[in-house]
What we know:
This protein is α+β, with helices and mostly antiparallel strands.
Amino acid sequence: MSFDLNAVPLLSRSAVDRADTLRADDQALKEGWSEARLLRLNRKGQFRFAEGALVLESAVEWSAEPNPTAVFLGIAEGRHLWAVRDTDLTGELSDLRMLADGIDDFTAGVLTSALALLNWHDSAGFHAADGVVTAPIKGGWSRVTENGAEEFPRLDPAVICLIHDGGDRALLARQHAWPPRRYSILAGFVEAGESLERCVEREMKEEVGLDVRDIHYLGSQPWPFPRSLMLGFAAVADPEQPLVFSDGEIAEAQWFTRDEVRTALTDGDWSARGEGPRLLLPGSISIARTIVESWAALD
């Protein structure tokens, strides 16, 4: 039984005008800086969040003109919006995982872009081909060497797949580092020269030893930890086929019925503590949650 997502994944709900046509317009960026708002994030990706909203400050209080270390995120409420890495940021701070479902579409769009871009800049100071120093241009959306060689933000695609039996059961797995009762669906990075469908086949075989079929694309979600794109799938496997954990990433996996998954969804997510249900599912920030909820909603 195939299914589709019944909601847009949380981090895919961006409500930011990215204003990409302005990125190469240095004069426009300079003119907009005087009224621009700035989001500051430390090395851990933490930021200030108060009264249900991101704390956005005046950009000119950071620097008189567009700062080369800042990244241009777009336009919000008629004002330019930037983000910058601030290693001295202190006080009461939040991070994207902590906020979970307590964020709106604007906040989701701002944080996913800011984190992905700043994480890329942290490791892109030298050109990959010859090690020459690079400098940010176009509002932080690319880097260039002195001789004009340009590089763009790196994105790491990864598949994430719910395996089900075509009926009433789904396979959920637990990594070694996770506490007992915490389960999710399976995921892995796409390799060079590999299609998404072949990646699903390979990763499911490597992680739990199952041969999957009827691979069905569901949707995607940015995952800026540090700069991934999660591509969601569902696939069918035979629950009688033995589970084999050949790559060492998975500690255990079990087939759960739809009713068991529905009960777990009602009981809460990974934030649950102490004694409770035998199954804890991912929080709402992950596309894994949306995929599981969509499968569980089937009649």
